[in-house]
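**Paired protein data**
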Amino acid sequence: MKTTLLEELQQARADKRQVVLATNLASGDQKLLYPFDNEDKSELSEAARNALRYDKPATFESDDGPVFLNIFNPSLRLFIVGAVHIAQALVPMAAGADYEVTVSDPRRSFGSSFRFPNVTLDNRWPDEALEELDPDRRTAIVTLTHDAKLDDPALQHVLKSDAFYVGALGSGRTHAKRQQRLLKAGFTEEDFARIHGPIGLDIGAKSPAEIAISIMAEITAVLRGKSKA
């Protein structure tokens, strides 16, 4: 690999950009692709997007010979607002799926190491924590508190980001009230449509563990481009 290309790749990874190293196996020519940073509709770009989406290298048959697509994805991250029972069930599921998990709750009796051992806890207000977290296309956010004072500031922050998944706990009625508050705060219907609410796939979940399963399933479906939303 040429030094300039290697330096560009290292910088892209430092910037947490999703990048693909495309190598023509016949000629040896290499180039970096940033398929999510543009609207290129070529077959090569689409193949690169799919490779990143599925976290799996691939080979693309081009007119100039086979091109190996080596992926470089930033780590997946999950930010949970609300150190509640559902969060206790969701954390190990997400960690098992290779997410770096942070639980945010300024209520220290909830967000404690006793209730969440070996988990990154953030006791700041969620919007303050998100400012530092800096959500990107590899970040999922879920709000679980049922408290507008905590959930709404987090949602207002994350809707301005590139987070690939935004979910909010609550009934259809609660979600409708949330919509009115966000629209009043200056967000658009298109912004609001990014929120998955009521959160999770409709599997008839009742218990905290079942709800956590439905949330993790929906996050995975959106990540892998299988969501019907």
Observations:
- The first helix runs from residue 3 to 14.
